Structure formats: structure tokens, C-alpha cells
């Protein structure tokens, strides 16, 4: 895998990782209500859940991609369509007023609940099923290894972003969420970045 693939894949998934969803809300709620350590336990659970997705993809997706270029193209456009949908949703949200308030609630078993949160998270499933295959090059061979490497990159960014959220909220959160202005800025920036990623992937053809 060359650096350009690593960079483009990272640029595509980082906005998705940063987009508020079940993973972030659960982790943030634990960091705010119980502390940084609880948030980090939830983060480990979330990453472990994505390890299961990674294993399933490595075992099955490689053979499918290698055997069916037509299916690969279909999956590629599903991924592009999904990114456009997410971008439009975020840009629409940026136009609406309203703060983001992190749910406050103590939950025991952050590790196991974080694991289940990511395992059942539709956004995570779409990353693995519709986006990750687009960065695999059949001509390089060993698509299983490529799938594992891309999965590792996604989980790395999940760990980095979610850990940063834990530290920030555990230290400064105090029950606060994102103000309306900051929430709009985050939504519009993430929406724009995801839309650009969709455009790159539409032009990017193996």
C-alpha cells in the first residue's frame, strides 16, 4: 500500500470517525459522567468491536473483490452514494439551530457495552462494506492483507479521535456538549470534507 492510498483513505474515514454517532455519544457520556478512565475503557470496547468487523472483512471480502470486478464497481458506488448522503445530512444539520448535549449516565461494563455499540453501529458497517473495498487494488494481489491494513488504519483513527474526546471531556466537559455555533462549524466542516472525499472516490478508479 502506497502513501497516497493511506492518505486518501485516512482523509475519507477521519470525518466519518469525527461525526457524532452511537460510538462518540456513548464514549462521551462515560467520560463526562464517570471520568476519563471510563471513557477510555469504552473506547477500547469500541475498537475491539471493530476488530470483529475487520476479521469478517478480511475473511470474506477479499475473495469477493478479487472474483467480481462488477460487484466491486457496485460496492464502490454504494460507498460514494453513502458519503454524499452523509455529507448532505451534515450540511442540512449545520443550517438548523440547536446544541449537542452529551447524555449523562453512569453505565457499568463500559468495555462490553462499547464493544456492542461498535459491533452494531451501521456507520461502522458501511465503512467496512462500502468504503474500504474502494481502496483495495486487485492488481497488487493479497487483498486479505490489504483489507487488514486498511482496517488497522480505520481502528487507529478511531482510537486517536475517541481517546482525545475522552481526555477533553473528562477534563473540561463538566456535562457540557457542543454549543450551537461550534456544532454548526463541526457539521459544516465534516460535511464538506465528506463531500470532497466522495468526489475523489468518484474520480478514483482502479
Find the count of extended strands (DSSP E, 2+ residues).
0
Number of helices: 8
* Number of domains as seen in the coordinates: 1
**Structural class computed from helices and strand pairing:** mainly alpha
Quick summary:
It contains 8 helices and no strands.
Architecture overview:
The chain is mainly α. The chain has one domain. Helices cover 78% and strands 0% of the residues. The longest helix has 32 residues, at 36-67.
Describe the structure using short key phrases.
mainly alpha; transmembrane; membrane; 8 helices; single chain; 206 residues
Write the topology of this structure:
Layout: H1 3-18, H2 22-33, H3 36-67, H4 69-94, H5 110-119, H6 122-131, H7 143-172, H8 180-203
Helix pairs in contact: 1-7, 1-8, 2-3, 2-5, 2-7, 3-5, 3-6, 3-7, 4-6, 4-8
Amino acid at each position: 500500500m502506497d502513501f497516497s492510498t493511506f492518505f486518501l483513505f485516512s482523509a475519507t474515514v477521519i470525518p466519518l470517525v469525527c461525526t457524532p454517532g452511537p460510538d462518540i455519544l456513548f464514549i462521551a457520556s462515560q467520560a463526562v459522567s464517570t471520568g476519563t478512565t471510563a471513557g477510555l475503557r469504552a473506547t477500547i470496547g469500541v475498537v475491539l468491536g471493530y476488530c470483529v468487523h475487520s476479521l469478517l472483512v478480511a475473511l470474506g471480502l477479499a475473495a469477493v473483490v478479487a472474483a467480481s470486478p462488477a460487484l466491486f464497481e457496485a460496492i464502490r458506488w454504494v460507498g460514494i452514494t453513502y458519503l454524499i448522503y452523509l455529507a448532505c445530512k451534515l450540511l442540512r444539520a449545520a443550517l438548523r439551530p440547536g446544541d449537542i448535549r452529551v447524555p449523562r449516565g453512569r453505565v457499568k461494563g463500559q468495555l462490553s457495552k462499547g464493544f456492542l455499540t461498535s459491533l452494531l453501529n451501521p456507520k461502522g458497517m458501511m465503512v467496512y462494506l462500502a468504503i474500504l473495498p474502494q481502496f483495495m487494488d486487485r492488481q497488487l494481489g493479497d487483498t486479505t492483507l490489504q483489507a487488514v491494513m486498511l482496517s488497522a488504519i480505520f481502528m487507529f483513527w478511531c482510537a486517536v479521535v475517541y481517546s482525545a474526546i475522552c481526555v477533553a471531556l473528562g477534563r473540561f466537559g463538566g456535562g457540557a456538549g457542543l454549543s450551537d455555533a461550534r456544532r454548526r462549524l463541526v457539521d459544516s466542516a465534516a460535511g464538506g470534507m465528506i463531500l470532497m472525499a466522495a468526489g475523489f472516490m468518484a474520480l478514483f478508479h482502479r
